[in-house]
């Protein structure tokens, strides 16, 4: 049975050069991360000290449907008139799914924030890690507490077995996997 979602650990690290009405913000910035289907979202606590350069270093866990193409990161600030979104970034799922980094490893990403007019309004720094399902973990032996990720290599087990790893090598105008 295939899972209908992937679990993401998104660490909202910090932001830079945040402005509200072309003036640096003073306090109370928070971040909301949501899926492209808007079915799920998580929000950080407010940073009360960082001003235009807030730091959260807060981990948010979010279930991303397998058909999702992106997540949205919104930076908000509490003002006298309520909570106001002043920067948004769309993060394509292709930036943290697949590629050359194995699942389970963190991707450190920075994105330009845009305000509601589409103008630049700071930068958000995040880390995204896709949690690997437990069914992919295999123990090296029944008595060992050490586990490895991946699938056991086929063939001669006289060399201790192990995990098969394909490393992409760029060779001329085409790519080969060895």
What does this 3D model show about the protein?
The protein is mainly beta and 178 residues long. It has one domain (5-130): Immunoglobulin-like. It is built from no helices and 14 strands. It has strands at 5-16, 19-20, 23-24, 29-35, 41-43, 55-65, 70-79, 82-92, 107-114, 120-130, 137-139, 147-149, 168-171, 174-177. The strands form five sheets. The chain has a four-stranded antiparallel β-sheet, with no helix packed on it. A four-stranded antiparallel β-sheet has the order 5-4-7-8, with no helix packed on it. The two termini are 31 Å apart.
Key words describing this protein structure:
single chain; 178 residues; Immunoglobulin-like; 4-stranded antiparallel beta sheet
Chain-wise SSE layout:
Elements: E1 5-16, E2 19-20, E3 23-24, E4 29-35, E5 41-43, E6 55-65, E7 70-79, E8 82-92, E9 107-114, E10 120-130, E11 137-139, E12 147-149, E13 168-171, E14 174-177
Antiparallel strand pairs: 1-6, 1-10, 2-3, 4-5, 4-7, 7-8, 9-10, 11-12, 13-14
Pfam family, one: C2
Protein name: BON1-associated protein 2-like
Domain C2: 1-109
Write a brief structural summary.
The chain is mostly beta strands.
User: In terms of per-residue confidence, which ranges show pLDDT below 50 for 5 or more consecutive residues?
Assistant: 137-151, 156-160
In helices, the fraction of residues equals under 10%
How many separate helices?
A: 0
CATH class: Mainly Beta
Topology order in helix (H) and strand (E) letters:
EEEEEEEEEEEEEE
CATH H-level superfamily title: C2 domain
Strand order of the largest sheet: 6-1-10-9
Mind telling me the C-alpha Rg? 21 Å
Q: Do you know the CATH topology?
A: Immunoglobulin-like
Our measurement of the CA-to-CA distance between the termini, rounded to an integer number of angstroms, reads 31 Å
- Sheet with the most strands? 4 strands, antiparallel
Strand tally is 14
Strand content: over 45%
- Average pLDDT rating: 78
The CATH architecture assignment turns out to be Sandwich
Structural class assignment: mainly beta
Shape label = elongated
Tally of domains: 1
Domain C2: 1-109
InterPro entries: C2_dom, C2_domain_sf, C2_SRC2/BAP
Protein name: BON1-associated protein 2-like
Organism: Pyrus ussuriensis x Pyrus communis
